[in-house]
Design goal:
7 helices; GUN4-like_sf; 151 residues; Arc Repressor Mutant, subunit A; GUN4-like; GUN4-like domain-containing protein; mainly alpha; tetrapyrrole binding
Length: 151
């Protein structure tokens, strides 16, 4: 599995092939941190400005694995297609990929899921639901990933 930095993607392929989607999702997040460089690794998260440092070869490998083992249901390219159909409206996009839920107190208010509330089942999750990219520090990281030239 191709990598510009010697990353081993066999564990990711194995997790995806055996339906261990939560583990594959965590592997993907961890890989992005490593691929983004030493500063990202030191703080344990990726700044949106570091996305350009992530090698296209590695992102393409991650993407191929997610799309292959989900039957085309998951992956960044899938998320990007939905992003385009949502006309770049983050709330609309999140609703389409199942990243929000109705708040019990105010029906119209939306809140982010906790990590344990995501659907790690290829048959039950909405198209584009995975891989998860944190928006806790804002939406810029997701937007940069979706606009990476590899897609």
């Amino acid at each position: 599995l191709p990598s510009d930095v010697g990353m081993d993607y066999v564990p990711l392929a194995t997790m995806l092939a055996t339906g261990q989607l939560a583990e594959a999702d965590q592997f993907t997040r961890d890989a992005l941190i490593v691929l983004a460089g030493s500063k990202a690794k030191g703080r344990d998260f990726v700044y949106f400005t570091e996305v350009k440092n992530i090698p296209s070869t590695d992102l393409a490998t991650i993407e191929r694995l997610w799309t292959k083992f989900s039957g085309g249901k998951f992956g960044y390219s899938v998320q990007k297609q939905i992003w385009k159909k949502s006309k770049g409206d983050f709330e609309v996009w999140c609703n389409k990929i199942g990243w929000t839920t109705k708040d019990g107190e105010i029906e119209r208010k939306k809140r982010w899921f906790g990590a344990s509330e995501f659907t790690y089942d290829v048959k039950k999750a909405p198209k584009g639901h995975l891989p998860l990219t944190s928006a806790l520090r804002g939406t810029s990281l997701i937007k940069e990933l979706l606009n990476h030239p590899v897609w």
